[in-house]
Amino acid sequence: MENPNKYIRKYFYETLNGIVVQGQTVKVYDSHTPNNDNFLIILSTQTGSEDWRDKCSIDKNRSINLDVIVRKVGNIGSRAMLDDIVEQILLRTKEIQIENFKVQHWQVTLPTDLSISTTTETIYRQIINYNFNIK
Question: Rounded to whole angstroms, how far apart are CA atoms 67 and 29?
């Protein structure tokens, strides 16, 4: 196998789709989503590079962003549900295995916390970035 991207998405989909947080089911989508879910994870941007260690060995460096979204009706509410979903994601991804590849090393960062509020809804978002070194 040369390109691990679909297997990375598969891992996150199978690991996270349908988790229940505070009695609410969280759905996972691959880049596109219907506009009617209130609790969701989008498998968004993926990047990659390859490092040749020697003529027989190559390290694949890949990353994926998980966009965690909580929608609330009106312009009130807190980020507590968002924090609880992120907590479940982090707990469920402590041991990462990518089909057909060996994970050498991985790192997770939470670089961006976003929110937007209108007169009709509030959207809380947290981007979680996973970086992998795989063979």
Answer: 10
Please report which confidence band the pLDDT of residue 60 belongs to, taking 50, 70 and 90 as the band edges.
Answer: confident
Is 3.30.2000.30 the CATH classification of the domain at 5-134?
yes
3-state secondary structure at position 12: helix
Q: What does the alpha-carbon distance between residue 57 and residue 133 come to, in Å, rounded to a whole number?
A: 13
Amino acid at 40: L
Rounded average pLDDT over 56-60? 75
Measured between alpha carbons, how far is residue 78 from residues 16, 70, 104, 123, 130 in Å?
A: 23, 10, 37, 10, 25
Helix (H), strand (E), coil (C) string for 23-68: CEEEEEECCCCCCCCCEEEEEEEEEEEEEEEECCEEEEEEEEEEEE
Separation of alpha carbons 21 and 108, rounded Å: 21
Q: Looking at residue 56, what is its pLDDT?
A: 67
